[in-house]
Design goal:
single chain, about 140 residues, mainly alpha, 434 Repressor (Amino-terminal Domain), 2 domains, 7 helices
């Protein structure tokens, strides 16, 4: 739910809430805000327009700068897919990471860097799968 507790949280709502937070805290321009947070102006534009999920490192920078919890950046789709409460903590974290990666992949435009990132992620997933088998 978004700030009013009624509407499902979407990327657009998160973007609107980010813009509202920025303006209500005295950061009139996206450029100034982006510079202070340590991310690009273009990323702030895309976030506020609800065009894409922020990258992990950007979420960390934003949440630290803004003093908000990680949940500020969670969409209702991610919340809906949250694992049940009986899950083990590590499994819960892994499932959350997989959902975030899937959302990132689905919402980011194709580019060579994305292809490289996907190769790295596939290698990582193979490592995780092997670790799961060895752990059992």
């Amino acid at each position: 739910m978004d700030a009013d507790g009624k509407s499902p949280r979407t990327l657009l709502i998160i973007g609107q809430e980010l813009a509202l937070w920025r303006k209500s805290h005295g950061y009139k321009t996206q450029e100034d805000f982006a510079h202070l947070v340590g991310i690009s102006h273009r990323k702030v534009q895309r976030l506020e327009r609800g065009e894409r999920l922020p990258a992990w490192e950007d979420i960390y920078r934003l949440k630290e700068f803004m003093g908000v919890e990680f949940e500020f950046f969670v969409t209702s789709e991610m919340e809906r897919d949250k694992p049940h409460s009986g899950s083990k903590p590590m499994e819960t974290r892994l499932n959350h990471l997989i959902r975030r990666l899937r959302m990132w992949y689905e919402n980011s435009p194709y580019c060579e860097e994305k292809e490289d990132d996907m190769d790295t992620l596939e290698h990582l997933m193979g490592t995780i799968d092997r670790s799961r088998k060895n752990y059992k």
